[in-house]
Design a protein that fits this description.
It is a single chain. The protein is mostly helical. It is 57% helix and 0% strand. Helix 1 packs across helix 3 and helix 5 crosses helix 6. It is globular. 24% of the residues are buried.
């Protein structure tokens, strides 16, 4: 792999990414499949930088308490559903989607940029939250507490995140439910 080529592609992606969308990422990863993981990682970095910049531009509320950045914790999808009085399992059942997909989202096993707006909208409606906020929760959700523990001979490494399409296609949902969750649309 030629590093200059990767740098050129990431630079061009950065210039094209005024607003990072799943469609933009899909277009670029389709065009440069050999750099797909790097493009996705760069897209996440761009979104994180934009979110940090937006938060920095907001003036603090008069009654706000300053919280050191190191103490800021992003809730997991499991925590959000719990606060809404439901569970990951119930959320999946309510949305008629495979439980494995919702659990994978909670664990950070699905690439957040590939999660369709349809899922974020329907889940946000069910949880009575803003769609953008829930999308940020999903992007930052890495709750591994429900994962099994195994003895390892080496340092554990994060596995490759699946795309939304891979997760849906690998699920045990009926073909019409898969088609619903893979279809573009609101």
């Amino acid at each position: 792999m030629n590093t200059e080529d990767l740098d050129d592609v990431l630079f061009q992606f950065h210039r094209a990414a005024k607003a990072v969308t799943p469609e933009l990422v899909a277009r670029w990863t389709g065009r440069y499949p050999q750099f797909a993981d790097d493009i996705r990682a760069h897209a996440v970095e761009i979104v994180d930088m934009q979110q940090r910049a937006a938060l920095a531009d907001e003036p603090p509320a008069a009654d706000a308490v300053a919280v050191p950045q190191a103490e800021a914790v992003h809730p997991s999808l499991r925590e959000v559903t719990g606060k809404a009085g439901t569970s990951l399992r119930d959320l999946a059942d309510d949305l008629d989607i495979a439980r494995s997909i919702v659990f994978d989202l909670n664990a950070g096993g699905i690439e957040p940029l590939t999660v369709p707006a349809r899922f974020a909208r329907l889940a946000a409606e069910r949880l009575r939250q803003a769609q953008e906020w829930l999308a940020a929760v999903i992007a930052n959700s890495h709750d591994r507490s429900a994962s099994p523990a195994f003895k390892a001979t080496g340092t554990p490494e994060a596995g490759r995140r699946r795309t939304w399409e891979e997760a849906v296609n690998d699920s045990d949902m009926e073909p019409e439910r898969k088609a619903f969750w893979l279809a573009e649309g609101p």
